[in-house]
Amino acid sequence: MHSPDSVIRLPGTTPKVEALHNALRSYGHVVVAFSGGADSAFLGAFAQLSLGAEKVICATAVSASLALSEADDCAALAKEWGLNWQPVVTHETERPAYIANAGDRCFHCKDELMDALGPMALAHDATVVLGVNLDDLGDHRPGQQAAAMKGAAFPMVAAGLTKAEIRNLSLEMGLRTWNKPAAACLASRIPYGTAVTVGLLGTIDRAEAALRKLGFRGNIRVRHEKETARIELDAADLVRAAESHVAIVDAFCALGYRYVTLDLAGFRSGNLNWVLSD
Fold first, then answer.
1. Cα(204)–Cα(65) distance, rounded to whole angstroms?
2. How does DSSP classify residue 88?
3. How high is the mean pLDDT of the chain?
4. How many Cα atoms occupy the beta-carbon half-sphere of 244 within 13 Å?
5. Which of 181, 169, 178, 182 is nearest to 50 (CA)?
6. Alpha-carbon torsion 131, 134, 135, 137, what sign?
7. What is d(CA 118, CA 122) in angstroms, rounded to the nearest whole number?
8. Position 165 pLDDT exceeds 70
9. Signed CA dihedral, 156, 158, 159, 160: sign only
10. What is the pLDDT of residues 31-64, one digit of tens each?
11. In 3-state terms, what secondary structure has residue 164?
């Protein structure tokens, strides 16, 4: 099997690893939706090692909804691992249904992604594959429906892989993304019903970048609530955030926030989805 870089390697054979090999082989050629998170990074690296670079394209959707640091990291990972990588500009922020930010926002985002990756897959007789794992199936993720409707496949679900197993396999492969914090799209910080604009996405991106500049490296979410920024961090970072309150408030007020709050419950993935269950 082709190896783009001696630093990374395929994990040892297990029934689930073999199932992932078999799923990828059944597609022949693949276009990996490569966001640079732990799941898609694992899938991209594994697919290229398993199938060979000539059968794998790792494509990153670049738009205002992707943090600049994440876009940069995708390019860096591709260079480090020797991936056949292509950035692809998407235009979900121009779709009225996406801007409206109803509960199905993610559907329209993934629909845009498939419209962008579809021609690439067609040109290479390939299947678009997404880094969805078993744990993702229980959350509110209409984007998965949109992707499946347009022919995307979820090989890690087919292999029965959980998030924890993907992180463990990533560590075994030598992927630095094995413990990378989850990084959902920037629009996930905006309450449903509040319009998603390019300017607002940029403000949130800069706010979270300010926290990283202050040394926070774990999970970071800046929830935008009109004039208020509600910060979610890992529980272990809450004390340090309180101690850094002056620097944080200064940075956020410079971005236009009037109030800056620290959520004592800490980071919670999908924190804004609770309104959909009412």
1. 10
2. E
3. 93
4. 18
5. 169
6. positive
7. 6
8. yes
9. positive
10. 999 999 999 999 999 999 999 999 999 999 999 9
11. helix
